[in-house]
Amino acid sequence: EMTNMELVKTIADAWKELPASQKQAYEEARRTDWEMYEKELAAYKAQLSPAQAAALKEERSRQLAKRRSFKAKRELTVLGKPKRPRNGFNIFVSENFQESEGVSPAAKLKQLFDVWRNMSSSQKQPYLQLAEDDKVRYENEIRSWEAKMVELGREDLIRSGKRSQKKAAAEKAERAKDSSHEKKAKLK
């Protein structure tokens, strides 16, 4: 009748109260399982062809890059980075999506796209003007947000065109220096 969270909390509390002599049996089982896993993994990697090993490594790096990208986007959202400005078509769709005809959202978008394409420039003008206003809003908000990030010491989040070239060059030199120190440490 417990939820998963309650069950995990109960088990964690029981583990904390368990004497070291009783924990030893579980730790031995974990160690044995880990050694068996490492042997199976080594056997699996040994039977891979070089091309398969390279493909596996490439897939792993792609997954890590995707995870890093997701974390970076989430961090920007948490830090309150303003949303990008909408264009005229986006504004048109947001205002007319509910009333548009179509069974699925994709069908509604296709129908709205056809309507947008057939509109005259004078009919599009109000939406394009709203898009220009949204662009001004975005520029003001992003400037304010970037100033806030500078105050917080997070210059790494600022658009690269806005950072001073001198500062970017100094950071690059520092990374190169750190990298050379790491190489020397490895050689030693």
Automatic annotation (TrEMBL):
One Gene Ontology molecular-function label: DNA binding
One Gene Ontology term from the biological process aspect of the record: regulation of transcription by RNA polymerase II
Source species taxonomy: Eukaryota, Metazoa, Chordata, Craniata, Vertebrata
Comp. bias regions, Basic and acidic residues: 168-182
Entries under InterPro entries matching the protein: HMG_box_dom, HMG_box_dom_sf, HMGB
General function of this protein: Binds to the mitochondrial light strand promoter and functions in mitochondrial transcription regulation. Component of the mitochondrial transcription initiation complex, composed at least of TFB2M, TFAM and POLRMT that is required for basal transcription of mitochondrial DNA. In this complex, TFAM recruits POLRMT to a specific promoter whereas TFB2M induces structural changes in POLRMT to enable promoter opening and trapping of the DNA non-template strand. Required for accurate and efficient promoter recognition by the mitochondrial RNA polymerase.
Residue runs in coiled coils: 128-155
Organism of this sequence: Eurypyga helias (Sunbittern)
UniProt keyword list: Activator, Coiled coil, DNA-binding, Mitochondrion, Mitochondrion nucleoid, Nucleus, Phosphoprotein, Repeat, Transcription, Transcription regulation, Transit peptide
One family name in Pfam for this protein: HMG_box
Subcellular location: Mitochondrion matrix, Mitochondrion nucleoid
Xref: SUPFAM superfamilies: HMG-box
DNA-binding residue intervals: 1-45, 82-146
Recorded superkingdom: Eukaryota
Protein's UniProt name: Transcription factor A, mitochondrial
Assembly mode: Monomer; binds DNA as a monomer. Homodimer. Component of the mitochondrial transcription initiation complex, composed at least of TFB2M, TFAM and POLRMT. In this complex TFAM recruits POLRMT to the promoter whereas TFB2M induces structural changes in POLRMT to enable promoter opening and trapping of the DNA non-template strand. Upon metabolic stress, forms a complex composed of FOXO3, SIRT3, TFAM and POLRMT. Interacts with TFB1M and TFB2M. Interacts with CLPX; this enhances DNA-binding.
Region (Disordered): 157-188
The keyword Phosphoprotein appears for this protein: yes
PROSITE patterns reported for this sequence: HMG_BOX_2
Assigned GO CC terms: mitochondrial nucleoid; nucleus
